[in-house]
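Figure S7 source data.
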Amino acid sequence: MVQVQEEIVIFVHLVSNTQILHMMITKTKAKAKLDKALSDYVRKSNADENGIVNCFTCTARKSWKQVDNGHFITRGKMSTRWLYKPEEGLVNTMPQCKRCNGFLGGQQFVFAKRLDHIYGKGTADKILLMSNQTVKFSIAELQEMTAHYNELFRNLRN
Ligand SMILES: [Zn+2]
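Tokens for the predicted zinc ion complex:
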């Protein structure tokens, strides 16, 4: 009897671990889809009628398809990972050339200066504070944001 109970306990653990693992995978995929949707929208919506964007930190002009969606605060901080509200002056992502975003490590200081210049003094500090808050998005919320940015992207002129 004791043996059977132990086996049941082990079985229940296995099932719940599998469910947790499944949810983690689903969430990771949902985050990746949102990353892609926001990246497409941010890069293309900042392009001119010829599809050219200025790198946010060095102003190099490139096709929106050749640049990254660069972050001021690292993508590791969930509360600001998808923060893109230009109308509210809160923007943590902007098109960035691969040199600035990769080789030059993101150019965070320049990024901050540019944010303050465009959206007003103190903007970078405000985003930095927001990045340290704990915000947990549900899978449904991530999917909702993805659908929102995909729709905005579809509505952009070509
Ligand atoms: Zn650049």
